[in-house]
Automatic annotation (TrEMBL):
Domain (Isopropylmalate dehydrogenase-like) ranges: 8-336
Highest taxon listed in the record's lineage: Eukaryota
Family membership: Belongs to the isocitrate and isopropylmalate dehydrogenases family. Belongs to the protoporphyrinogen/coproporphyrinogen oxidase family. Protoporphyrinogen oxidase subfamily.
Species of provenance: Potamilus streckersoni
Record-given protein name: Isocitric dehydrogenase subunit alpha
Record function comment: Catalyzes the 6-electron oxidation of protoporphyrinogen-IX to form protoporphyrin-IX.
Signal peptide residue numbers: none
């Protein structure tokens, strides 16, 4: 695409470390020469504090108009406060597919070098449908919703992605031995779609075993396909294998718009200290650039980050870790206990 085409993108810097990593990201994008007009808005806690609404209508209008948004992390209080803005965005914009390419970065914190696993998570239902009732004092019920439509749609997304990006294998993750109806339906839909993509290998694994296998032998996986809750948990596990939350990008692809975001939270423990790692935000921006047809700029950005991380000099404290261990790992020697 032309270097001179201007893109209008909604930008939500977010809470906590959000504004810091957003500023770093903007400087990197500027260096690529891609022309972007950022329509910047407050959302989450920052918007709540300012105007009493964590997701003002103008934010939704902007995203719906531009069709693309880039988002920093948004704070959601645990067990109280306003409903998660992330969940609201996903539901309102029908952001049904969550895509997290997890690739090892050259850093002392990287447990496994050379890993490249794409996680595809259904983003709209399961226990995240938010249907909870207090049946009687001390008894609460949460409903897990799995539908054929959403399961077929996410399975199609995963297999089409595999075909387009020449990925070899998809593993559907489930707990259908216990949740025979809900996860059974999810699996049945995955199988149905898999049959239409004979060039992509397909297998299934129970989620607890999958977690162990990911830690013991992650190289067996190419793409993972999961319902919402397992996808949320397993994608963070995958992030831990390749360098941590600070280096993994995410995309929420929807029918109305797409929202790109780092997978980590607002990190209140380090906010304002100037030590937040902007890598995940920059990698998410690269995914966004690819999505809007600016693949050359995206590749340039990713390669530059790999080079900087590989040098290990100008990196944030979370990536400094055990440099000596990293040097040994590079030489293929792993006889080091990797503890922080
Ligand atoms: P978190 O991801 O904010 O932090 C977990 C740990 O990782 C912390 O020690 C933090 O310092 C570190 N960390 C995270 N991102 C980092 C970065 N870029 N550079 C360096 N270190 C980084 O998770 P949490 O503490 O569980 O959640 C804090 C808040 O973020 C909560 O309100 C939660 O709801 C919210 N959250 C938002 C999103 C999102 O907007 N997508 C995702 C997860 C959590």
């Amino acid at each position: 695409m032309s270097k001179h085409k201007k893109h209008i993108i909604t930008l939500l810097p977010g809470d906590g470390i959000g504004p810091e990593i957003t500023n770093a990201m903007k400087r990197v994008v500027e260096a690529t020469g891609v022309l972007i007009e950022w329509e910047e808005h407050l959302a989450g806690k920052a918007a709540m504090d300012k105007g009493g609404d964590p997701l003002p209508q103008e934010v939704m209008d902007s995203i719906l108009r531009n069709k693309i948004a880039l988002k920093g992390p948004l704070t959601t209080e645990v067990g109280k406060g306003f409903r998660s803005v992330n969940v609201q965005l996903r539901k309102t914009l029908n952001l049904y597919a969550n895509l997290r390419p997890t690739k090892s970065v050259p850093s002392p914190n990287t447990r496994y070098m050379g890993l490249d696993i794409v996680v595809v998570r259904e983003n709209t239902e399961s226990l995240y449908a938010g249907i909870e009732n207090e049946i009687s004092p001390g008894v609460v019920q949460a409903s897990k919703i799995i539908t054929r439509d959403a399961s077929i749609r996410i399975a199609k997304f995963a297999f089409e992605y595999a075909r387009k990006h020449k990925r070899k294998k998809i593993t559907a993750i489930h707990k259908a031995n216990i949740m025979k109806l809900a996860d059974g339906l999810f699996l049945a839909c995955c199988r149905e779609v898999a049959e239409k993509f004979p060039e992509v290998q397909y297998n299934e694994m129970i989620v607890d075993n999958c977690c162990m296998q990911l830690v013991m032998n992650p190289n067996q996986f190419d793409m993972l396909l999961l319902e919402n809750l397992y996808g949320d948990i397993v994608s963070d596990l995958c992030a831990g294998l390749v360098g941590g939350l600070g280096v993994v990008p995410g995309a929420n692809i929807g029918t109305e718009a797409s929202v790109f975001e780092a997978v980590h939270g607002s990190a209140p423990d380090i906010a304002g200290k100037g030590i937040a790692n902007p890598t995940a935000m920059i990698f998410s921006t690269a995914l966004m650039l690819e999505h809007i047809g600016e693949k050359a700029a995206a590749t340039k950005m990713v390669n530059a980050i790999y080079r900087v991380l590989g040098e290990g000099k100008t990196v944030t404290p979370d990536l400094k870790g055990l440099v000596a261990a990293y040097e040994l790992k590079k030489k293929g020697l792993n006889a080091v206990v990797l503890e922080q």
